[in-house]
């Protein structure tokens, strides 16, 4: 079991993931820019998961105390905060669930970052850390809800360091009940992060909380193409 720090642990996403990790037996340090807010959020989480070891601390202290760190802050202000925390994150696995998303009158959209992503920006700012992208598509409402496991969803994980990626893949099981899915190199975050805008758009249209579930991974599933239902009709001359 690891000590997991959640940077931005006072927000709905950080709280929700911390709740799931705490239930999975991990020790949690909820981080905030403000010590008091962190302590309050930690007390709430401790009440919700009495068996868990939970505390609140300033983001830098939380990062220092952890083996593994989750970045759960808005994209606005992300780079400045990550740069400030760099010395405290050196040598650690850092998981980013940050989605650079904008909203206008037509709905949500992925921000155009050029050939990068929030996770890659974090890696650039944290050369001594191993950054992984994961947990982008889980809604805070579901994470904070009463379902035992979010077993109707998959966690897609991207990263360049195999051991760090394996840690995130394993951690995903505390949320969905099964390991996360290796979605490739860290640069896949350029696709994974804005995909959340599609889910938000679907949620608005259908009044649901949609998620990602990947088909075709079970080797027991026969993927041989089925024969045509009807023989093709010969062309008439
Ligand atoms: N909400 C969701 O359903 C959801 C789903 C998937 C992914 N995400 C991603 O997860 C991240 C967090 O989402 P959220 O909804 O929890 O966000 P949020 O409530 O807006 O922010 C989370 C926490 O970040 C801190 N924060 C806010 N602005 C900051 C700034 N400029 N610099 C540093 N820290 C700041 C705040 O904590 P303190 O004031 O206590 O420091 C805040 O409580 C986002 O990147 C989002 O895209 C969210």
TrEMBL record:
Keywords attached to this entry: Oxidoreductase
Pfam hit, one: F420_oxidored
GO biological process, one term: NADPH regeneration
MF terms (GO), sorted A to Z: coenzyme F420 binding; NADP binding; oxidoreductase activity, acting on NAD(P)H
Start and end residues of each Pyrroline-5-carboxylate reductase catalytic N-terminal domain: 4-100
The keyword Methyltransferase belongs to this UniProt entry's keyword annotation: no
NCBIfam families per record: npdG
Name of the featured protein: NADPH-dependent F420 reductase
Species whose genome carries this gene: Nocardioides immobilis
Taxonomic placement: Bacteria, Bacillati, Actinomycetota, Actinomycetes, Propionibacteriales
